[in-house]
Amino acid sequence: MRIAMIGTGYVGLVSGACFSEFGVDVVCVDKDERKIDQLNLGEIPIYEPGLNSLVEKNTQAGRLTFTTDLPAAVKGADGVFIAVGTPSRRGDGHADLSYVYDAAREIAAAMNGYTVVVTKSTVPVGTGDEVEKIMREANPDGKFDVVSNPEFLREGSAINDFMRPDRVVIGALDEKAQEVMRNLYRPLFLIETPILFTARRTAELIKYAANTFLATKITFINEIANLCEQVGADVQDVAKGIGLDGRIGSKFLHAGPGYGGSCFPKDTLALVKTAQDFDSPIKIVEAVVEVNENRKRHMADKITNACGGSVKGKKVAILGLTFKPNTDDMRDSPSLAIVPALIEGGAEVHAFDPKGMDEAREMLDGVNWCEDAYEALNGADVVAIVTEWNEFRALDLERVKASMASPVMVDLRNIYNPEEMVEAGFEYYCIGRTIKNGSNGN
Fold first, then answer.
1. Mind spelling out the 3-state secondary structure of 358-384?
2. What tens digit of pLDDT does each residue of 74-127 get?
């Protein structure tokens, strides 16, 4: 089989590489000539564990190629995947679908013969209908079906998520389109992966509902963490206690500084707007969006409080900038709210992130960028752990204590044991946990 993947961002590049690993001939298309040149030279523009070797293997095998020539890629393709960005639209929070619709017009003009056009981008309910309308207007005699096939890739573990997913959702009721999709995902059928065929609008809503539910779980446990700090309970034990209930599950019950990334912020907001447009508001999701934004700002207050109520003239070390570990993605990261608030309060911020420094430099001003964690810690009045990279989990605490001006740690990811930190001589602040004979979680 042969497919074209329109868009070589995170979803498009990972999906294209994984399909080629399935034995499919994949042509990845992007308008950005520089990005395509990089990919043809073997340079991967994003950080995702295992992606470099996967791309290299399949390009050498001739199954994966990169081009800016969309018409050439689309002609003769069994399937064309739209994997372009759908960022929040400025001003109203709706998903910006202009890139999706532009791709649809270009695909319609280029295809020759029956083609399954697959929306891989995260799009609101009804987008597939509009894509079909646009394509029909651009090519009235075209033979095609429009399918929704939402992605469920977690940054940092995307390849495994694609190769061994919990499920594959395909919004297609036409038998011919279903057969094309079955052939594309044949390796997953063979390992008995659940494949759910639904109506197109249902598939579109499944994606938003899944992300929003996970964002709600995160926000819920963060609210419980606040309560734990007030009543003297331990949020990690609470999370374990409820997570052992099979109806709830333990995933996404880790208290922290709020969710970020490429999906949850824009998808929760887009679902809110869609629900409002259809006069069926989802109040719980509206609250999730509001609470999460407030939480990010509150984390800067937490660091300020650890400094006695003011960070003016204080050197603050920030460890971790990306929204989660094992990615270089800075989109909607809590650090984008925390760091500017600290600088506005008069702090001298020294920061380090293992993979996110280049992108962070483009998004944050007034920061002193460091080569490693210990450089950031040198002479610091307080250190805040914002992202739970593995290398921050086993810092040499004696070295940390000796290098800091004062041994104060604000652990926004709860990666250290409170009692051990107190015993090591630190003034330690965390999320939703009480600390015996030392500081507290506030």
1. HHHHHHCCCCEECCCHHHHHCCCCEEE
2. 999 999 999 999 988 876 778 899 999 999 999 999 999 999 999 999 999 999
The residues, any chain, with a CB within 8 Å of residue 235's CB and separated by 6 or more, are 221, 224, 225, 228, 255, 414, 431, 432, 433
Give the count of beta carbons closer than 10 Å to the beta carbon of residue 188: 19
* pTM exceeding the 0.85 threshold for the entire prediction: yes
Q: Residues with catalytic annotation? A: 263
Dist. CA 343–CA 298, nearest whole Å: 15
Q: Cβ neighbours of residue 92 under 8 Å, at least 6 residues apart?
A: 273
In the chain the domains, ranked by start, together with CATH numbers, are: 2-198 (3.40.50.720), 217-429 (3.40.50.720)
Q: Which long-range contacts (CB under 8 A, 24 or more apart) does 95-103 make?
A: 95/122, 95/123, 95/124, 95/266, 95/270, 97/123, 97/124, 97/127, 97/130, 99/7, 100/127, 100/131, 101/130, 101/131, 101/134, 103/6, 103/7
Q: Check: CB of residue 167 under 8 Å from CB of residue 196.
A: yes
- Residue bearing tokens 């911020």: 349
How is residue 2 written in tokens?
Answer: 């042969």
Instruction: Output the six-digit token pair for 161.
Output: 């998520």
Backbone angles phi, psi at 236, to 5 degrees: -70, -40
What is the torsion angle, in degrees rounded to the nearest 10, for the CA atoms of residue 282, residue 272, residue 172 and residue 247?
Answer: -50
Q: Residue 304's Cα: distance from chain center in Å? A: 28
* 210 phi/psi in degrees, rounded to 5: -65, -50
Query: DSSP alpha helices (H): ranges in 146-193?
Result: 158-163, 175-184, 186-190
Instruction: Compute the distance between CA of residue 152 and CA of residue 209 in angstroms, rounded to an integer.
Output: 12
Give the residues across from 350 on adjacent strands.
317, 368
What does the block give as tokens for 66?
């990169």
Condensed to tens digits (0 to 9), the pLDDT of residues 191-221 reads 999 999 999 999 999 999 999 999 999 999 9
CB-side neighbour CA atoms (13 Å) of 331:
15
User: What is the C-alpha separation between 115 and 143, in angstroms, rounded?
Assistant: 7
